[in-house]
Amino acid sequence: MSTGLSLPSRDRASPGRARSRRSWPRAYLLAGLSTLAACGTETLDAGRDVGLLPVNRRNALVICNDGSYDNWQGEYAVLLSHAGGPKLVGIVVNTSTPWPDLSVNIAGWRDLVRVARASGMEAPDPTPSAAPTLKRPANGDIDATKPNGSDGARRLLELSRQYGSPGRRLVVANGGRLTELADAYLMDNTVKDRIWVISSLGTASSSGASMGAPNGEEDPWADTIVAHRLQFIQVSSFYDQTVDVPQARIPTLPATDFGARMAMKQPNIYKWPMAADQVSVVAAAIPTFVVSANNVSAGAPVGANASAGPDLSNDPKGISWVVTSVSGQAVRDRIWSLLVPPTTAEPLPIYTSPVGP
């Protein structure tokens, strides 16, 4: 993710107006009753499968991000996919200001895939995507923007056709710049009918939210395109991710390659709450994570020298959302229910990575 250059050590976004739960169709309430968890078998309560947002674990999921070592986004997506969803069907890897080397970034995500598979879990091959930020046309017309035609955008379009539909869209959990998502729209406008974008991005306010740091400052014109053209959920509330895997619990991680990778990453997890890109994954996967969310509409497209995307204003009729309050405890409860302690006292295996954190 991008953390910007002047982030506060802790984000205390305004909780805003709590969104009432909708009465979703019965089909949304009927998930599978049992599934294989990461380290055992669990029973799912289908009645708890619906949270405040219009997506849940029944939507297929794609990750779009830069580096893989600063937060738990990849690990949580793999664990949750293995434990009943959302099913992780794709990983698109790009760059950002703090993570500018695509070769390092893709190596980190490939290592995640390797350890997941070695530990008995499925994970898709990541797609590297090298593309510049999108250029705003002189006339400010979104649909006159020239697409990059990036590999990441092509992969998103392919997956959206395979797993997305107006009735059940593909979720793209974004933890960096929105370039590939905007590029996908520019290449094929019909993608708007097949995907939801959930992005760890910006800051909430009493009137809505801004599309700035984290991540919104990386490609403001892409922010504009996504906010105006795609179904968009901005998670602008974060939590202290450093307490998800405390030092005292490292010995209880599974004695697998996957557990060893988590142990290796733990000391290097970024201390900024706004670095917790996994909020884009758990917002869809864990119904109790989102405590409050508002419907919003995007403001006017940004100008040529913008340093952030458009403002998002509270609007009961808006089709986009801003998450304003979350529960870090809901994440820890769910993740540790999947990271079942080993039944023996055998130590974690020695872990080696081709690139390191």
Topology diagram in text:
Blueprint: H1 26-29, E1 34-36, E2 41-43, E3 61-65, H2 73-82, E4 88-93, H3 102-118, E5 126-128, H4 151-163, E6 170-174, H5 179-187, E7 195-200, E8 203-205, E9 208-210, H6 220-229, E10 231-235, H7 257-265, H8 279-285, E11 290-298, E12 312-314, E13 320-326, H9 328-338
Parallel strand pairs: 3-4, 3-6, 4-5, 6-7, 7-10, 10-13
Antiparallel strand pairs: 1-2, 8-9, 9-12, 11-12, 11-13
Helix content: 25-40%
How much of the residues is beta strand, in percent?
15-25%
Strand order of the largest sheet: 5-4-3-6-7-10-13-11-12-9-8
Q: For the record, give the distance between the C-alpha atoms at the N and C termini, rounded to a whole number.
A: 14 Å
Protein structure class: alpha/beta
CATH class, named Alpha Beta
Tertiary shape: globular
CATH overall fold name: Inosine-uridine Nucleoside N-ribohydrolase, Chain A
Indicate how many domains the architecture comprises: 1
Which runs of at least 5 residues are low in confidence (pLDDT < 50)?
A: 3-47
Q: Can you identify the CATH superfamily? A: Ribonucleoside hydrolase-like
Radius of gyration: 19 Å
Order of helices and strands: HEEEHEHEHEHEEEHEHHEEEH
CATH second-level architecture: Alpha-Beta Complex
Question: Mean pLDDT, as a whole number?
Answer: 86
By DSSP (H or I, 4+ residues per run), the number of helices equals: 9
> What is the count of β-strands?
13
Largest sheet: 11 strands, mixed
